[in-house]
Design a protein that fits this description.
It is built from eight helices and no strands. With 231 residues, the protein is mostly helical. The protein has one domain. Helix 4 (59-84) runs antiparallel to helix 5 (114-130) and helix 5 runs parallel beside helix 7. The longest helix is centred in the C-terminal third of the chain and has 29 residues, at 158-186. The chain is globular. The relative contact order is 0.15. InterPro entries: PAP2/HPO (IPR000326), PAP2/HPO_sf (IPR036938). Keywords: Membrane, Transmembrane, Transmembrane helix. Residues 60-176 form the Phosphatidic acid phosphatase type 2/haloperoxidase domain.
Length: 231
């Protein structure tokens, strides 16, 4: 059993160095931005706006349970970090000199990633709510990119990310099922029903275009600033 755990740990470390080793000054800045919650604030606000507009009075319950899913992921991740006490790559004395670390070393422990759990909980909950395939593909790819930044920045191992993804998906799914239960039990007379409502095509296009605008603008600005040696 110990040998198996050692093998998994070594494989995890090897994969970390493979992904963490793919870096450049340009992508250092981009990944440092992509990993930050506030960077995506406009995207979050737009999604919340469509929830409020489409689900009206039920939006209060939806937003509360969405917030609960994030709190569960964040707090449980902290508990597991303290229980397992697996050092982040950026804090491990044995390898930290080999780690490409950008800006901050983060907290002491790494397992498992709250970023991955939070983003995948949001992706799962909202994709089940909006019931549009294009949105689901988009939001899961977004969550994957945000999760990948944690490896790029030297803050998490791939296993930290995979565990966070699994926990986030399960949490988002469970809280959505709770939402359906609450609707059927207590909000039955309030229309429209969640299962009869989905994100409109034009609403998805707005979200996607907003996302592309944010990302492309960031790429162009960072490229220009580096060209003039301002960053």
């Amino acid at each position: 059993m110990i040998g198996f755990i050692d093998t998994i740990t070594q494989l995890d470390q090897d994969l970390f160095f493979f992904f963490n080793g793919k870096h450049s000054p340009f992508w250092d800045i981009i990944m440092a931005l992509f990993t930050r919650t506030e960077y995506w604030a406009l995207l979050y606000l737009t999604i919340l706006g469509f929830i409020i507009r489409n689900y009206r009075a039920k939006a209060v319950v939806i937003l509360v349970l969405l917030a609960v899913s994030i709190v569960i992921c964040d707090q449980f991740s902290g508990l597991i970090k303290d229980a397992t006490q697996r050092l982040r790559p950026s804090h491990d004395p044995a390898i930290q000199h080999l780690v490409h670390n950008v800006l901050t070393k983060g907290g002491l422990y790494s397992y498992f990633s709250a970023h991955a759990a939070n983003t995948f909980a949001v992706a799962t909950f909202t994709s089940l709510l909006f019931r549009r395939l294009q949105y689901g593909i988009f939001i899961y790819l977004w969550a994957l990119v945000v999760s990948y930044t944690r490896i790029y920045l030297g803050l998490h191992y791939p296993l930290d990310i995979l565990t966070g993804i699994l926990f986030g998906v399960l949490t988002g799914w469970a809280l959505f099922k709770l939402l359906i239960f609450v609707e059927n039990r207590f909000l039955l007379l309030q229309f429209p029903k969640l299962t009869d409502t989905k994100l409109k095509s034009k609403e998805f296009r707005f979200i996607f275009i907003l996302f592309l605008t944010i990302v492309i603008t960031t790429l162009l600005v960072v490229n220009r600033l580096q060209h003039f040696n301002w960053i």
